[in-house]
Amino acid sequence: MAILTKAPRGTQDVLPADSYRWQVVEDIIRETARLYGFKEIRFPTFEHTELYQRSVGDTTDVVQKEMYTFLDKGDRSITLRPEGTAGTVRAMIEHGLLGGVLPVKAYYLTSCFRYEKPQAGRLREFHQFGAELFGAASPTADAEMIALASEIFKMLGVTGLRLAINSIGCPTCRASYHQALTEYFSARKEELCATCRERLATNPMRILDCKSPVCSGIAAGAPVILDFLCDECKEHFEGVKARLSDLEIPYTVDPGIVRGLDYYTKTVFEFISDDIGAQGTVCGGGRYDGLVAELGGAPTPALGFGMGLERLLLLLQAQGIELPEPRPCELYLVSIGEAANRRALALTNALRKEGFYVDCDQMGRSVKAQMKYADKLGSVYTLVLGEDELQSGKAQLKQMDTGETRQVELSAAALSEVLYQAGTDRLNDALADWFPQE
Fold this sequence. Notes:
This protein is of the alpha+beta class and 438 residues long. The protein contains 15 helices and 16 strands. The strands form 3 sheets. It has an 8-stranded mixed beta sheet. A 5-stranded mixed beta sheet has the order 13-12-14-15-16, with helices on both faces. A 3-stranded antiparallel beta sheet has the order 2-4-3. The radius of gyration is 28 Å and the shape is elongated. The model is unreliable at 434-438 (pLDDT under 50).
């Protein structure tokens, strides 16, 4: 029976005490994406397996080892989404969104699934913010996507990130690069791990991404893709670098970045932190100009990135970045007897409609227990309602942190005015702390 009360390995619950951190991060992401002209897209949790085989690539670890794939009741092969780009592209093609005004900018906040060894910052169900831009071939689009990710980190207060960029060329110039890699790694084939020996015949660029110390050591001396770029790819990459400089976004060129999915072309990039251990890449992406056509659409330049939310939250924690907690309960109405409880419920409902967080007893607790509960909620004020208060139409409002009391009219309008003024005073105090007078 223990299995019924334990989450599957590689998954985690986000409990009510912690969910506000996710909400703050998601709100900042949504607002920043809006300022850049991106609108949300939502797509299914699962797709036909062929979509990921065609887009992500048969030779990638994602397809070969990590996908959750099963047959449905119609004997169709179905896969839980391992990433968001393929589903976005499929939706763009299916609904004809690329035949209208370009560019099309879309973002998503979604869960993804990969069968991996669970560790800090790497789960089997993980959450991702992704942004995709369709229809723009200009290096300006590359710079804008990188700027969007950079701005989100800035808005969250993250520091110390390194932006690494590279160009992995187009199919034309990559063919000669693949040949050079094949010749280089073939000379040391027997030293490679079993997986990389298979990659040598299918996609030698994947060897550059191997985490084996032996393979990565061999890869360190491999030919560099930047030496094989065609004139168009060189010009594009120089344009990206120039625009990043215009935007004052610092970067380093890392020829070792190839990303883990086969659909990438030209620009690839990663934002990397040294504060969260081995899983230091918190955002990665690049161009995939051939993917729309590969999946059956009209040839359309495109690019995007993915940002892991679990890793992002780990990074915020590692850097000691405090996220604003939700507003506490502003007023708790303590009631004595059924008539008072009914009046408390009516006042609670009326004040909530005015935008205040107000609560009252639903448990039939004693006055002492209600006060203790109000304290646990962090309620700013309490007000006790009994027979005397109902008859007089007045009650004592108590400020919990100071113990000060004042008499107030027992009406939603009067209480609303008091709570509004108290909230304004607290906001002014907070602003004074942030912007002290000279």
